[in-house]
Write a structure and sequence with these properties.
Chain lengths: 283, 283, 283, 283
């Protein structure tokens, strides 16, 4: 049976844990996972409470209603999710296939609990792969001077499919501020550098020129400020003088795949809360 | 001002989070950190709650008394600690100085909040170092056939100093089952292998013979079953065919120092709970 | 244009580097990569020399002939490879698809320079995947009491395809000593534990029971001594009390895929030399 | 008995390996370690050859003379070192003691084969520690507007002691371009960020503000371009939303200590060659 996940962020003050826990207990629920964090810089309270519903005497919508007065009292930013709700996802790609392929594979094996509604790419290259996975493939090329038209077509498609989560799987097109604003906290990008190092183009070339001994990649929410959105997950790999740019790219590909998958999983499991430019990612 | 830390483990059942949180809230306390874990194999509930006491209307002993009925109702294993209580610690060492030296240094710089009451060693080598740090040094050698007498002397000293935490900083003597039983969950050992690999003597030689590509070390609670106590922390480092036994030892030393310090810090911050042969270590 | 790779192991003695380098230089070759290691325990010399052939005045077979006297003088174990020779590979699998899938994908994208001649599995599950990748799929089930017959069929197939490298991609059948002896240094297995910890069955269960804080996987040559062949590559990932057996399995899968791919790549690039139970893996 | 270490960098061309190996062999030397790298971007050849001298028939100065014609023929940047030559080192520090303390400890235990001639600090804080280690401590404070005078005093002291390697152990003063030019490749700095991320002041604050999930540190050669010298070694540690700036600092301290020690050891073992802005660090 499904669990409910209650995500809370609000100004810190006493009584929040008790208020939510009491309500759950009053209605026969069992808290099976609770993580809490208080940010002492911003004085903000964050909480993720996972509740078994077997013995719960509230229906899902009743639970949301019952939480309303608590949310208002503490000025909460409140989300209530259920673990059997599978989010509708679109994966956007350009030329590089590895992140797209990995996500489709994790979806196919059931490791990633998402409903992939569409693969959208500005290149035709991955149609066959998408077809093998049984996912609709939309080739929306960017014509010279027609970037806006292409983005409009992408957004139409996302709306038509009711997409709730957009994964940029090495999608090399810049999104407009309007697009980012429509999907705040719903667009995850993988950047092939250890941000904030090597922002901008060709990070593996930059890393090679600088002679770093470790390279990294970054999964972050896309925002209007390019490469500057809140970071969800990062990872690194050791390199040496033996690694030329092509070797960095190859090592980086494995990292990109792993880090993007971890970020998407965290999002899908409702474990990420945004705190300004930072994130709280519960384990 | 100090915080209280409430550590709970008990059979899992609904209402535990609410019961503790309510009591805290009722008396004006503010929960600043709460971590909870339910072990689904053993159906055991674990919780660490850290409470600011500024506005709390219970004295420390009153808080413990007030928690009593809750503890009984849920059959809790309950500990209540306060962050300004500094534990009395003894460090036991043999020939190798690195872990001892590192602990004394972290204590001297204030990074490790402990009260080092005694350094006990079965060798005289570290007397000068202990003296420089201003810590009493007790040389209790093990005479042939007199292991029990030496252990008795060690235990007398620990009792005389009221020691609450014993750190085995590469102490190469085996402790009796009685000793381990007297200090359950209060003796931390650093083992120079990635347990359970290479149990027993000369793990770096064993690791070299086996040709592993990564070596590790393990901090664990000492129990009557040698090298088999619950693991608190582990870490690893990559090695290669270029590393002979001496190189493994050198790499291992840095790991031992780091992992033992992290384990002691977790213990001192009341972040470790034992779950059979496993541990719950909250962040 | 292809390079030659000269792999040497022999008893250590002066003059080996000079002897090989002289021969290369005499015939107009350019050494573009040279790595050397002397094992001081076994007094064994190891060397990998990569030579550009553009300006080399010996044909491939002439080079091998010319190295003959040097090899005899120093009692060398000598291999000469060329980087445009693509090894014929068979991938053996059982139920778990992830390592198989990853290898086929790396082959398809050209990242892994191998010629996958056959996928052999004792289960029918992966036929469709193999078909999509365009690789022959051989379902050779193990009937009760017929293990030997199945192995004979596998070996017939390997011989028929002229297979030079056998990758056990989570193949859960034990190979006979004869099979291992026929393909010494040519069978790479991925073991889902950080060997020598948790040898034998169900390593993720064992790791969970023991409460380790880090899990790992091991790629090694298969030998008649189960789980005891020379280790090529290992890697680890941090886990916590939050990870149940299923979570360990999921984290382990990503590791298995990465470590097996790295080991196969090292083998294919002629960077692995065996030294008793240990390996020398040049970067 | 000591070994010789021959370090070579020069434009890539055929015959270099053979030329050096021949000379060694001709005079009865045994190559016990040889590492070579060809940078294909800069077309530069790098080599480190370690030679046992037991049976070598050239004296040390004769070896250097004998290498002269080879060096000229290939336009080599050539260094010849001997493993029993212990470099004279000065450690420069400011307020933070951890890197200084660790280096002195590694020197005292014999792990780091250096001759620490002087500790120089612009604060008086570490005099007692230096005294315990038996190392001369020079307090050279920076008076307002007198930075140049202080640097002149530092350089006088370095010259008087014949210092060959300067370790900046969290020394927070900027060195002049002249100072850097006098000691090219002889000044190692530890920077408390994962360069090039968070250059400049307060990197742990910057890292916290940006919300990175991993922090790192960098050991590099000091050059006139601040924080931009060739990188010798880096390492990283995972952090989370739970880590405030003080926690980042504490995790960073352990990293700084480890990475600086590794970089100094690589330098002392003659394993680092500079390649423009990059380094070749042989294992």
């Amino acid at each position: 049976m499904a669990n409910a996940v209650v995500l809370v962020s609000c100004p810190d003050q006493p009584g929040i844990v008790a208020a939510v826990a009491d309500l759950v207990h009053l209605h026969g629920g069992n808290i099976v996972d609770l993580q809490q964090h208080t940010d002492r810089v911003d004085h903000t309270f964050f909480q993720r409470v996972e509740v078994e519903l077997d013995t719960f005497d509230l229906a899902r919508d009743e639970f949301v209603v019952a939480l309303g007065p608590i949310a208002r009292r503490y000025a909460m930013n409140l989300q209530v999710r259920f673990t059997d709700e599978i989010p509708r996802v679109a994966v956007l790609a350009s030329r590089e296939p590895h992140c797209l392929h990995d996500l489709l594979n994790r979806w196919r094996t059931g490791e990633l609990k998402v409903d992939v509604r569409a693969v959208i790419a500005n290149h035709p290259d991955h149609a066959e792969m998408a077809s093998w996975y049984g996912v609709p493939y939309h080739h929306l090329p960017v014509q010279a001077g027609e970037r806006e038209a292409q983005e409009a077509a992408v957004r139409d498609l996302l709306r038509a499919e009711g997409v709730e989560l957009i994964v940029l799987a090495r999608y090399m097109q810049i999104l407009s501020a309007e697009f980012c604003a429509e999907y705040v906290g719903q667009i995850i990008n993988i950047h092939h550098s250890f941000l904030p190092a090597f922002m901008g183009a060709k990070p593996y070339h930059q890393a090679h020129d600088r002679g770093v001994k470790i390279i990294g990649v970054t999964a972050h929410y896309a925002t209007a400020d390019l490469d500057d959105g809140p970071i969800i997950e990062q990872d690194v790999v050791r390199v040496s003088h033996r690694d030329d740019v092509e070797a960095l790219r190859a090592k980086g590909r494995d990292l990109e795949v792993a880090v993007l998958a971890r970020a998407v999983r965290a999002q899908v499991e409702h474990r990420v809360l945004v705190c300004g430019r930072r994130t709280v990612v519960f384990d």
